What we know:
- It comes from Gluconacetobacter diazotrophicus (strain ATCC 49037 / DSM 5601 / CCUG 37298 / CIP 103539 / LMG 7603 / PAl5).
- Residues 16-273 form the Fe/B12 periplasmic-binding domain.
- The protein is an alpha/beta fold.
- It has two domains: 17-123, Rossmann fold; 152-304, 3-Layer(aba) Sandwich (Rossmann fold), CATH 3.40.50.1980.
- It has helices spanning 22-30, 48-53, 70-75, 90-95, 108-122, 125-149, 177-184, 203-209, 234-237, 258-269, 279-291, 297-304; strands spanning 17-19, 37-40, 61-62, 80-83, 100-102, 159-165, 170-171, 188-189, 199-200, 213-216, 241-243.
- Strands 6, 7, 8, 9, 10 and 11 form a six-stranded mixed β-sheet that branches.
- α5 runs antiparallel to α6, α6 (125-149) packs parallel to α10 (258-269) and α11 (279-291) packs across α12.
- It is globular, with a radius of gyration of 20 Å.
- The model has no long low-confidence stretch (mean pLDDT 96).
Amino acid sequence: xxxxxxxxxxxxxxxxxxxxxxxxxxxxxxxxxxxxxxxxxxxxxxxxxxxxxxxxxxxxxxxxxxxxxxxxxxxxxxxxxxxxxxxxxxxxxxxxxxxxxxxxxxxxxxxxxxxxxxxxxxxxxxxxxxxxxxxxxxxxxxxxxxxxxxxxxxxxxxxxxxxxxxxxxxxxxxxxxxxxxxxxxxxxxxxxxxxxxxxxxxxxxxxxxxxxxxxxxxxxxxxxxxxxxxxxxxxxxxxxxxxxxxxxxxxxxxxxxxxxxxxxxxxxxxxxxxxxxxxxxxxxxxxxxxxxxxxxxxxxxxxxxxxxxxxxxx
Length: 314
């Protein structure tokens, strides 16, 4: 049963997977099946750390259309497709007889369900082991952060605005995974009255919210292109504008690096309460434990600064 309630008959051990939701590729890689991705919608130019960590992805066919060519998928020998819950491709792929698993997630709880579902479908004991360890780490991180920020009253918690794009100006509202990690890290989403991801807003609306902290999405664009009135914001004047890290997938979006995102956000909002948190070390450990990849400290620093891998690296 996939994440939308569809019953799907899958191969016991799918060998050639079409991973057609940007965020899900990271789950497949984390669960040890990067070499089984035959078709992907994550391309090297957009996800350089993904290809650095999982070089087997270079053998996959890259697609850019939200509804890929079904003949190409069949010719590629694809025996299973993962798509988002709202994917327009699901119906056409099912029509040609391809097993389609909708494995989208919208919050921490459904992320864990998607990880477990993917491990079930991959059919490997090792995938189940990673899924169990991941659940334990995410649960422990949530509790670690909760205990540290619990003494802070709701009224004292900073109002945080997450900006997905500066041009055009879009932000993330309530009932999103972004809203959840802001709240769990001890903040309040400044985009009150707004629901959903990547919602267009005016600079006048942002000025009315006047957030205490602004977090710029990893691909939000050059801050020098910010609209007129940006410099007058409370967060800008106080020097509390922060660039969100981006690694295998942007930490702030819908990916498995969420434990790192929670820690980074909590430390950013409350440096005194998280003095013991070294984000370089935390990043190195996570990549070792869940991507089987040994980052160098300089690599981790680049990820934390939302920078691409250094030229000539591994």
